[in-house]
Write a structure and sequence with these properties.
It is a single chain. Helix content is 33%, strand content 16%. By secondary structure, the protein is an alpha/beta fold. Helix 2 links the parallel strand 2 and strand 3. The protein is globular, with a radius of gyration of 17 Å. The N and C termini lie far apart (40 Å). Bound molecules: zinc ion (ZN). The site of zinc ion (ZN) has 5 residues, from loops.
Amino acid sequence: MVLTAGFGGAARAAAQSVAQAPSAGSSGYERKVIVLDAAHGGSDIGTQISEHVLEKDVTLALAVRLRSLLAARGFSVVLTRDSDTAISTDQRAETANRAHAVACLVLHATASGTGVHLATSALNAIDSTTPGAAVPWDDAQAAYLTQSQKLAAGIGDAVTRSQVPLVAAKAWMKPLDNLTCAAVSVEIAPLGRGAEETAVTDQGYQQRVSEALAGALIFWRNQASGRAAVDAPGVGRAADAGARP
Ligand SMILES: [Zn+2]
């Protein structure tokens, strides 16, 4: 079965329950929408962070924390899940792609390594697609990868300015590969090592990382406002060309 993103994905998604409808926007593409995907959930616990803490709970806590920071700055935030539920990566991507977001962050957590681990899709970037054209679901991110890499660079700068160590990589991973917007996977790891270690459950550390992410997203939104009519690649965005604020 060939699945498609964009219009095909939206049609396919119509049969699914809708977590949150996209914000109303006259252009159909709302540049203030951010999608946060708290990875794992329900029976998919992710990794064991500590004896009593599971990754799925840390990712949700981080998503909720980041949502309130972003909402306070005028973003409309769509969470792929806001409770302890199991959802497939395709469902996550469908929710994200329907939202026509300016950016999507996939949130993970780990007890190993240190700092923040960023990943963009390992797909080969495609420079442009025909506006409105359906793109293969499995490679949907390819047309947005250049944007994703710029977003990752911005997030990396913000994380580094917060004096949190940074590891950047590329990865084949769902739902990242299926997303039709600038998309980055952000994995939070402990800060420091040994006796000096700050766990990913530490509220202050979570806040520090969230503020760095929010700062990078504000910068990204402001850039996107000026860039959208020039190079936003095309799935379903033909109507946006004249919609620059
Ligand atoms: Zn994970």
